[in-house]
Task: inverse folding
């Protein structure tokens, strides 16, 4: 009798984890991130919430997709530090300085002091806790979404690749860099333009700062350069680079759009209509044969 009272149906389980399922859908459907890695990312956020960093997932759902994707990348950095035990971990003596802020967006989201040292110190409990959540929560509550995302990805991979003709203009996305700022160290658009102009001349074609209200601080920006070679010079062969603009730290990386290739004429028309929207807007979730609630 007691056992029957404790039984939770799949529908009830999905409903309880509806917020987590929605974020997972954004990662694997809208952003086309790898499904299994994305489960670990969701487990990472749930584990942080259980450690006292409240409402992390809910906060992420209110953010534009481009920022959700960057937060997911920072989560992977933390996972590599805690689960694999790898990655660069700043010394404890410098952990309170901006130089050690390798996860600036996570710090801003959680609004608490946290850095890679935290995951290094809690490596065992983090690895065990995240693995447990993947098994007990993610695999049960998100497998239907994962299966459809994997099938969709396989269909796309089977499509013939597009051919780039010689002499064709380089798309803006291939000339774009994504930069993030530390909360509490606001950087203005003119400072960004002056910094890169001083180092690389008149190189910026357009610059899009995060739109904020009132006295709020922009946490990221997207820079389109006139030439893709400028990004290569800035990053100097690295995946991510750190700079100081007027004593404020800025992280830069190449912008990697997560855009699906249309599989049919109907999806193509839908894709073209949404591509005209701002990269910071949050488009509606596409229809899939499962419920995120």
Result:
């Amino acid at each position: 009798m007691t056992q029957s009272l404790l039984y939770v149906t799949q529908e009830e389980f999905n409903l309880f984890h509806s917020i987590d399922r929605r974020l997972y859908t954004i990662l694997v459907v809208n952003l086309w991130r790898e499904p299994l890695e994305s489960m670990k990312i969701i487990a990472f956020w749930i584990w942080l919430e259980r450690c006292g960093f409240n409402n992390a997932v809910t906060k992420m759902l209110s953010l534009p997709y481009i920022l959700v994707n960057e937060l997911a990348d920072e989560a992977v950095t933390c996972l590599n530090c805690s689960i694999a035990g790898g990655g660069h971990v700043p010394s404890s003596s410098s952990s309170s300085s901006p130089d050690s802020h390798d996860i600036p967006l996570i710090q801003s989201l959680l609004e608490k002091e946290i850095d890679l040292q935290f995951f290094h110190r809690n490596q065992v409990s983090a690895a065990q806790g995240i693995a447990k959540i993947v098994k007990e929560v993610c695999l049960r509550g998100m497998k239907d979404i994962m299966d459809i995302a994997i099938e969709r990805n396989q269909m796309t991979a089977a499509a013939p690749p597009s051919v780039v003709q010689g002499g064709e203009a380089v798309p803006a996305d291939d000339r774009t860099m994504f930069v993030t700022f530390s909360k509490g160290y606001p950087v203005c658009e003119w400072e960004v333009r002056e910094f890169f102009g001083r180092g690389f001349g008149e190189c910026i074609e357009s610059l899009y700062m995060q739109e904020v209200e009132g006295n709020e601080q922009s946490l990221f920006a997207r820079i389109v350069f006139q030439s893709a070679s400028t990004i290569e010079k800035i990053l100097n062969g690295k995946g991510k680079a750190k700079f100081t603009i007027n004593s404020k730290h800025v992280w830069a990386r190449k912008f990697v759009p997560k855009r699906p290739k249309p599989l049919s004429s109907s999806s193509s028309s839908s894709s073209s209509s949404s591509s005209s929207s701002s990269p910071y807007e949050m488009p509606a979730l596409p229809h899939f044969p499962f419920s995120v609630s």
In short: The chain has twelve helices and five strands. The mean pLDDT is 78. The beta strands are 176-181, 204-209, 220-225, 240-245, 248-254. The longest strand covers residues 248-254.
